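Objective 1b. Sequence-to-structure analysis of Helix-turn-helix domain-containing protein.
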Amino acid sequence: MYLTVKETAERLTCSESQVKKLILDNKIRALYDGQEYLINEDQFQSHFKQVEKYKQLIEEILNEPIPEDIDIKDED
């Protein structure tokens, strides 16, 4: 399925100008049909999977309990 620049920007949560810049910098593959750029949706699947993995990793790190420091001594 092909997306327009506007649809791609919504999916990537960025502006249309950023998407156009990424296309012109060859960081996003796109076809130009004479009027607008069309972007294949499948090229973002690995990106979304990686983002989901990072979210899970961050959640695990934030939920990990802080270990007690064994070097703390009661001086009283």
